[in-house]
Write a structure and sequence with these properties.
The strands form 2 sheets. The chain has a 5-stranded mixed sheet, sandwiched between helices. The protein has a 3-stranded mixed sheet with strand order 3-4-6. The chain contains 5 helices and 8 strands. With 179 residues, it is of the alpha/beta class. It starts with a strand and ends with a helix. The protein is 35% helix and 17% strand. The protein binds zinc ion (2 copies). One zinc ion (ZN) binds next to α5.
């Protein structure tokens, strides 16, 4: 079973291939890259952010249906995301329909007035993208701060995670995907 990775046309250039490869390595699966043909909606003018739930609604109701997609689907976007009750989210997954979204907005050093670094952006996007797809594959949050399924609340917590699943999560994933 592969993973389809959709790229918002405004997502950062040049990171698609390395991010896709890292996600494939992290989850031990194949990835396919597709340019997202729709507009990313859910824009909230007051917050100047996009509602991640509305983005997933669109993926579920339009994209997955129209193209009859059965594989887990991850949209990578540069828009800053929120869900009701949170200032922001790095990403969001909806396992019931197999769709997830991850935002590069707060994964970029520029957001924190730090020196731009593509490798940082690639690593973080891969870790958070794999994290959301991990939810689609049945994984929950992990208490191991170095595991990709750990839920980071800050950039430093995200950077502390390694580009791997801990042994427990790896085992759970293997059990779930070999059925
Ligand atoms: Zn999570
Ligand atoms: Zn874990």
């Amino acid at each position: 079973m592969g993973i389809k990775i959709l790229w918002d046309q405004q997502s950062p250039a040049g990171i698609q291939l390395p991010v896709s490869r890292l996600i494939a390595m992290l989850l031990d699966t194949e990835t396919e890259t597709i340019e997202y043909p729709l507009l990313v909606d859910g824009y909230d003018r007051e917050r100047d952010q996009h509602d991640a739930q509305k983005i997933l609604d669109r993926l579920q109701n339009t994209f997955i249906r129209r193209y009859a997609i059965a594989e887990p689907l991850l949209l990578v976007t540069s828009r800053d995301l929120f869900v009701n009750g949170c200032d922001f989210v790095f990403g969001l997954a909806r396992p019931s329909c197999g769709a997830a979204v991850v935002s590069t907005a707060r994964l970029d050093n520029a957001y924190y007035s730090r020196m731009p670094n593509d490798d940082d952006l690639i690593d973080r996007t891969a870790k958070e993208g794999a994290h959301e797809v991990g939810h689609l594959l049945g994984l929950g949050h992990c208490s191991n701060p170095e595991c990709v399924m750990f839920r980071p609340r800050t950039l430093d917590e995200l950077d502390r995670k390694k580009k791997m699943l801990c042994p427990d999560c790896s085992e759970t994933l293997a059990l779930r995907t070999c059925r």
